Amino acid sequence: MPIKILPARLANQIAAGEVVERPSSVVKEIVENSLDSGATSIEIDIEKGGHKRILIRDNGSGIPHDELALALSRHATSKIAKLDDLDTICSLGFRGEALASISSVARLSLSSKPKDQAQAWQAHCEGRDMQVQVNPVAHPDGTSVDVVDLFFNTPARRKFLKTEKTEFTHIDEVVRRIALSRFDVSFSLKHNGKLLRKYPAVKAQNSELKRLNTICGKEFSEQSIELNSQFQTFELKGWLAQPGQSKTQGEFQYFYVNGRMMRDKLINHAVRQAFEGLMGADFYPAYVLYLTLEPNQVDVNVHPAKHEVRFHQARLVHDFIFRALTDSLNQYCQLGQQQPNP
Ligand code: ADP
Ligand code: MG
Which keywords belong to this entry (predicted)? Predict the structure, then answer.
C-alpha cells in the first residue's frame, strides 16, 4: 500500500486505544478534566458498568461556546502552549487527547456554561466523521460530559469489555483513587440510578481522617501511622498501615506524585525496602502517600495514561522516600516497645 495520511477520525480511534482502555479510563480522564477546571463538586452517574452510559457533571470553570467544538479535536488543550510549559505543569491533563479519543469511540455530548456566559451550549459528536453539532441547552454553571454506547463503532474493542459488575468495580476504584487525591472536592458515584458512594468535601485539615475512613475503612484509618517529612524541596505526607496490620497484595497501595496517582518501580522499591524485615514475605505494606516536589523535578510526559513518571533526581527521590518511611516506622516500633506490658 502507498503511504497515506490517515483520516483524522481513524487516527483518533487508533489513539483512543492508548487512553480509553475501558469505562474506568473514560471516567478517569473526564474527572481529571473536571478537577483541572477547578470544580469543587463532581457527580458521576454510571449505567450498566459504563457500557451504556457515563455521565459526569462538574461545577468548574466551564468551556466557552466558541471553544466547545475545539475541545473535541485532537491536540486541542488549554493547559499548555509550548514544550517548556511541561516543566511547570500543575494540571492533570495536557495532551489534548482524551475528549477526541472518547468521542471517536462513543456518542459524546459535552454541555457547558462558564459563569459569565448567559446561555449554555452543547456539542455533540458521534460516528466516523468529525462533524460536531453545537446547540443551545439548559445547564447550570459548569460542565457535563455524557458518554453513551462506548465502543459502539469498534466491535473488536467492545468485545473485550468485561461484565457490568467488573467494569463498575474498576470505576469504583478509579473514583476512590481520585477522591483520595483531592480531599477538598466532593464526589458522588451512582450506578444504575442508585447512589453508592458519597465523599463530601473535607473542610478542615483535621477531618481528613474522615474521608480516609470512608475510603480505606476504620481499621486502616484508626491504626495507621501518620507521616510528614521534608527534605530540600521534597515533601512526603500521608499514612502507613502498621506493619502487623498490612494487607493482601495491592490493597491500599496509593502513592501520589504532585496529586497524580502513580504505579512506579522506583517508588515501589523504596517502600518495600523500608518495610523489609518488619513483615513477612507474603505481607504487603498498605499506604496512602503524597509526594510533592517542584514540577520541574519530574517528567510526567512518559506514559499516555500518565501512570509513570520520570524523576530527574531519581536516586535522591528514592532515598528520601526510603528514609522518611524508615524513620516513621522506627519511631513507631520504638514507641511500641516503650509501652508497658498489660
Ligand atoms: P487535556 O485535558 O489534555 O487538555 P482533553 O481532551 O481532556 O485534553 O480536554 C480538552 C480541553 O477541553 C481541555 O484542555 C479543557 O480546556 C477543556 N475541558 C475538558 N473538560 C472540561 C471541563 N470539565 N471543564 C472545563 N474545561 C474542560
Ligand atoms: Mg484531559
Answer: DNA damage, DNA repair
